């Protein structure tokens, strides 16, 4: 057996009501999956879903106190519903997608918006604007629960409401997102899918707190230290 020269911590998320934890394998994110959010950035909401990733160790639990990220003066919140995959598969049909879901959580896809703008203008990848350290705040996962289309998704910064929409406002519903993503990669247990953010994204400054709420799920919140 090979002995490794160092140990890499295994990222994991709390499971609501259980002592076991959900081991995180990969984090996939869906871009522009709410029409109003697509329009606020000048994009066509009819475009098919596209995906980017965050490293698993970018995940931080709800309640964390975080250092403000480097190299940015415009850090944005993006409230998202997170789907936790419990059963893997490839080329999953939308009608079968529900059977692959372990549970759901609240999430926040933190974005260095100024770095993203530069990357877009230079036609370069978004990685350093999306996949930086502590860029995915994930609340406890609630297993075995469906999310109704009328469930509200909200984001507050220092108690001020910034984002307020319904899960049913997604351009591509959860089942379609899973089906589309599974044509690109073989999904596996431990994968998380952040399913896109509604309109109203905006900055979170040093010293501010941010909370994502989705009806029926525990909140995902954090604050930036000064």
Please provide a written account of the structure:
With 226 residues, the chain is mostly beta strands. It has a single domain (12-224), classed as Fumarylacetoacetate hydrolase, domain 2, CATH 3.90.850.10. 13% of the residues lie in helices and 35% in strands. It is built from 4 helices and 18 strands. It has helices at 35-40, 113-121, 127-130, 174-184; strands at 12-14, 21-23, 26-31, 50-54, 59-61, 64-66, 75-77, 79-85, 101-109, 111-112, 136-138, 142-143, 152-157, 160-166, 191-194, 202-203, 209-214, 220-224. Strands 3, 4, 5, 8, 9, 11, 12 and 15 form an 8-stranded mixed beta sheet that branches. Strands 6-18-17-13-14 form a 5-stranded mixed beta sheet, with no helix packed on it. A 3-stranded antiparallel beta sheet has the order 10-7-16. It is globular, with a radius of gyration of 17 Å. The N and C termini lie far apart (46 Å). The model has no long low-confidence stretch (mean pLDDT 93).
Identify the notable features of this structure and list them briefly:
226 residues, 5-stranded mixed beta sheet, 8-stranded mixed beta sheet, mainly beta, Fumarylacetoacetate hydrolase, domain 2
Q: How do you describe this structure in short?
A:
This is Fumarylacetoacetate hydrolase family protein. The protein is mainly β and 226 residues long. It has a single domain (12-224), classed as Fumarylacetoacetase-like, C-terminal domain (Fumarylacetoacetate hydrolase, domain 2).
């Amino acid at each position: 057996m090979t002995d490794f020269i160092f140990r890499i911590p295994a990222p994991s998320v709390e499971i609501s009501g259980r002592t076991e934890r959900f081991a995180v394998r990969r984090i996939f994110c869906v871009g522009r999956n709410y029409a109003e959010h697509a329009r606020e950035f000048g994009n066509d909401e009819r475009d098919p879903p596209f995906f980017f990733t965050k490293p698993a160790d970018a995940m931080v639990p709800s309640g964390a106190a975080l250092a403000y990220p480097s190299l940015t003066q415009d850090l944005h919140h993006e409230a998202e519903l997170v789907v936790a995959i419990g059963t893997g598969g490839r080329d999953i049909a939308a009608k079968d997608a529900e059977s692959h879901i372990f549970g759901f959580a609240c999430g926040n896809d933190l974005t260095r918006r100024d770095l993203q703008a530069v990357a877009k203008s230079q036609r370069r990848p978004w990685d350093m604007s999306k996949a930086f350290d502590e860029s995915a705040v994930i609340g406890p996962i609630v297993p075995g629960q469906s999310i109704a289309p009328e469930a509200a998704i909200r984001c507050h910064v220092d108690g001020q409401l910034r984002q307020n929409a319904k899960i049913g406002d997604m351009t591509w519903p959860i089942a379609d997102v899973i089906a589309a993503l599974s044509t690109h990669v073989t999904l596996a247990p431990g994968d998380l899918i952040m399913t896109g953010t509604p309109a109203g994204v905006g900055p979170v400054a040093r010293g501010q707190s941010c909370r994502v709420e989705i009806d029926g799920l525990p909140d995902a919140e954090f604050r930036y230290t000064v």
